[in-house]
Amino acid sequence: MTNAPAPVPTSPLGATLVIGATGTTGSRTAAGLAAEGHRVRAASRHATAVPGAEPVRFDWYEPATHAAALAGADRVYLVPPLGDPDPAAVMLPFLRRARAAGVRRAVLLSASAVPEGGPAVGKVHQALPGLFDEWAVLRPSWFMQNFIHRHIHAASIRAEGVIRTAAGSGRVGFVDADDIAAVAVRALTDERAPDSDLVLTGPEALGYDDIAAAVAEATGRPVTHHRLTYEESRDRLTATGMPPEFAALLAGMDRAVAEGAEDRVTDTVQRVTGRPPGSFRALLARELPGGR
C-alpha cells in the first residue's frame, strides 16, 4: 500500500478578474493578489502580460471581450473607463453580465470626491449593492503618484517645475496607490466583504504648495504651485484632449478642494490592512529618481 501525496494547498477562491490591470491601482492589486497565491485574470485592452497573472483582453467598449474575461472569475476589481463622464452606461450592463456569469463579489474604484449617486462613477456606486451580495466601493483621495508618474501634474513638474490647479490653498489627504491596492486585496479576499464604501487617505492633509515644496526638496529642483481659476483649469484640461464634460468635472473637484471638501484624513488603511498609510515624503524617497 502506498501513501498518496499530500494535496497541494490552493486558494479556496475562484479567479479574481482585475480590470485595468496595467494601471496605477490595478497593477498593484493584481500583484498583491498573486503574491498571496490567488488566481488572477489581468484584464487590459491589449492583454498585456502581468507577473503572476493570466492576461486577458478586455475593453469596456467592446462587449465581445467581456464573456471570455469573466470565465472562471467569482470576484472582480473594477476600474472605470478613464475619462468617461458617464461610465455607468457601459459598466452596468457588464456588471449584470458578471453576476449572471457567477461573480459574487465586486470591488469598485471610485473617488473620495464622488458620493454614492453622484456624478460619473457615483451612479455605479449606487447600483452596486443591488447587484452583488458582497461588495465594496473604494473612495481614495488624490493619488500621490500623480506627481511622479503618468499624469498632467507629473508632466508639468518635469517640463516646467510647475503644478497648476484651481485648488487654491485647499488641502487633500493624498494617498499612496500601494495603500489603495492593499485595501483592495483585503476587500476582494477577506472572508467577509466590507459591504460599504471606504474613504482612503494618507496620514496627513497637504496643500499643493506643500506638495511643490516636498518635490523640490526631494529633487533639488525648484517646483511651484500656480493657482488657476476654475475656468482656466477647465480650459487647460480640455486643451489636452480631455472630453469637455469630464474636464469640467475635474476642475469642479479642484474648486471643491479650495472650499475644504477634501481636508480630512481617515483611519481606513490602518483599520483594513493593519498598517499605517505611507506618507508623501516616504513615497518620494522610495520612487522619485533623484529623491532624497
From TrEMBL:
InterPro entries: Ergot_Alk_Oxidoreductase, NAD(P)-bd_dom, NAD(P)-bd_dom_sf
Protein name: Oxidoreductase
Domain NAD(P)-binding: 20-116
Pfam family, one: NAD_binding_10
Lineage per the UniProt record: Bacteria, Bacillati, Actinomycetota, Actinomycetes, Kitasatosporales
